[in-house]
Amino acid sequence: MKIHPLKIYLLKNKIKQKEFARLSGIPQITIYRIVNYKNKGFPRKETIEKIHKLTGIPRNQFTYLEDEDA
Predict the structure, then answer these.
(1) Which of 45, 48, 56, 61 could hold 5 in an S-S bridge, CB 3.0 to 4.6 Å?
(2) CB neighbourhood size of 18 (10 A)
(3) What is the pLDDT of residue 65?
(4) Greatest CA span in the chain, whole angstroms?
(5) What is the 3-state secondary structure (H, E, C) of 31-48?
(6) Are 49 and 38 in contact, with CB atoms under 8 Å apart?
(7) Structure-model confidence comparison of residues 3 and 15, the more confident one
(8) Domains of the chain with bracketed CATH
(9) 3-class secondary-structure state, position 23
């Protein structure tokens, strides 16, 4: 399974999802859904921008894999 770039960033920087949510102003459930590929499609543009500004992760890295069971 592919690991989301945001999850890699959080692990490398020893930042918990809850802390990143507080720093970014993005709900913790949204962070969870992004790093675990639980959203269908893309996060909102505003969410991508906030994450990009805080982490430097390229905007085009916020695509999702199709469910393997689907």
Answers:
(1) 61
(2) 11
(3) 45
(4) 35
(5) HHHHHCCCCCCCCCHHHH
(6) no
(7) 15
(8) 5-61 (1.10.260)
(9) helix
